[in-house]
Amino acid sequence: MEKEFTPKIVGFCCNWCTYAAADLAGTSKLKMPSSLAVIRVMCSSRIDPTLILRAFLRGADGVLLAGCHPGDCHYEKGNYYARRRFVLLKSVVETLGLDSERLQLSWIGASEGPRFQQVVTKFTEKIKKMGPNPMLEKISL
Amino acid sequence: MKGTKLKVTKSVEKTIVNFLEKGLDKKCFDIVLIPLKVPAGDSFAWVLVQDKSLLADANPLPPVMTVQGAKALSSVARKGKMSKRIAVVMRPCEIRAVIELSKSNQIDLENILLISIDCPGALPLKNYIENPKESENKFNEILRSAQNDKGTQNDIQWGNESTRPICQVCDKFTGTDIGACQSDLHIGILGVKDGNISLIPNSKKGEDILNEMSFPVEKLSNNWENKVKELVKVRKEKREKLQEELKPQIVGLDNLLETFSTCINCQNCQNVCPVCYCRQCYFESEKMKLTSDDYLMRAESKGGLVFPPDALLFHIGRMTHMSLSCIGCGACEDACPMSIKVAQIFSFVGDKSQEVFNYTPGKSIEDALPLKVFEEDEFHTVET
Ligand code: SF4
Ligand code: SF4
Ligand code: FES
After folding, report:
1. Is 80 exceeded by the pLDDT of residue B153?
2. Quick check: bond before B308 cis, omega within 30?
3. Residues 317 to 356 of B: which have CB under 8 A from any A CB?
4. Which of A137, B21, B36, B65 could bond to B47 as cystine, CB 3.0-4.6 Å?
5. What ipTM does this complex have?
6. End-to-end CA distance of chain A, in Å?
7. Residue in A44, A96, A102 to test binding to B, most B beta-carbons within 10 Å
8. What confidence tens digit (pLDDT) does each residue in A28-72 have?
9. CA-to-CA distance for B19 and B143, rounded, in angstroms?
10. In B26-64, which residue ranges form alpha helices assigned H by DSSP?
11. What is the pTM of this model?
């Protein structure tokens, strides 16, 4: 029997919002897939597109960048810059014909435990349908 | 278009050099940055020329691009305002890179006069090195074809198949708004059938210099503008065609891996790129050096691992850093020892991402670098 595919998703989560939401989802015992490996960062703008790319090319089935809602960034403007960098990253990846759908940007506020649960569940479902990242097998990556 | 007509004496290059000599004499500027033939006679180097006699070896339009001009200028002017007035003579793509660098505080433009020239293209560095004399003749023929132009098709050899592939599809080979190039003064050499070239002021600085040198600024005939626009149209079509041909070769994971499979990760392309200005490149940092266990683990799970590793990460990562500023100068492709179509690929990706941000690098100092600014209400389609 074929083993069911469990996606591996790297999640860069902002300390002030999304990470708190993840915590809340946990303490509220909300059920969700265990596919997300959370990396806590101080702001969504800490993440240079290269870090997302690095996870992606190394074979992560999906990469999630998540931070505070626009207007709520702890450092006021970080997430606006993060969004522009993400737009550029998406555009480059798309132009090169790689699976840009494996990269996702979401805003999840500190009190939004259920939203965290929903984002992770939906993204996992989507990646499940896409199957494993073919990059994982490539010996030059 | 308004400007000054200059009678060509001997050659276009000499006429431009004479103009610079006059500027030095009249103290309109104190020093000139311009390519000079190296003593061995088979290459060109950027030289800051104070002593006018050195200008005898100057060539404002050398057949090759050895060092991208913006790179040369940023080594002079990145630590703040110049104490002397400097005139810089460059190809339009070099000027556009200068404008990009000034936006990231790598060049202080205050005392700099940027002079651009219509560019006939440049020859691939490799071909030139193999046979400098023959290459120079070839280039001369291309350059002079602008003067022999009788208006029939194929008169103009600019950007012909001897020039670098990226030059053949360059639609910004000229100055002013038409070439999206914000020099102070542009020298038009296309479409001048009466033995003149045009000096076209493109900024207050440019106007002031012509005044200081007592050149009359008058309405120019439409010849230059018409010829330039005609060629821009042809080039735009060629560019689109080349990119359509490029796509099936590079787009998609397997094609991409194949394209860069010969890359030796020497990072020459990054080192010569004028708009890659970081003093410490991420890809040369400790962050890229992992423990042996990391590599062993990768090799184990994949069955093998290519070394040096992470070549594709380097290229795509670089695109996410600088493709918005890529001005398609071709320096990277000239520098690649493996003849990878680096400039064609980067400028293809650059064109696309620049479109997304509605940004043209080098066009105007007023247009902020897209990653340095934002609007609160934008790009919601990338949010999930
Ligand atoms: S990537 Fe290549 S073509 Fe683009 S600016 Fe850099 S050197 Fe020039
Ligand atoms: S110059 Fe060529 S071989 Fe060297 S890193 Fe760039 S693409 Fe690879
Ligand atoms: S602090 Fe959360 S996105 Fe900036």
Report:
1. no
2. yes
3. 317, 319-321, 323-324, 348-349, 352-353, 356
4. B36
5. 0.96
6. 29
7. A96
8. 999 999 999 999 999 999 999 999 999 999 999 999 999 999 999
9. 19
10. none
11. 0.95
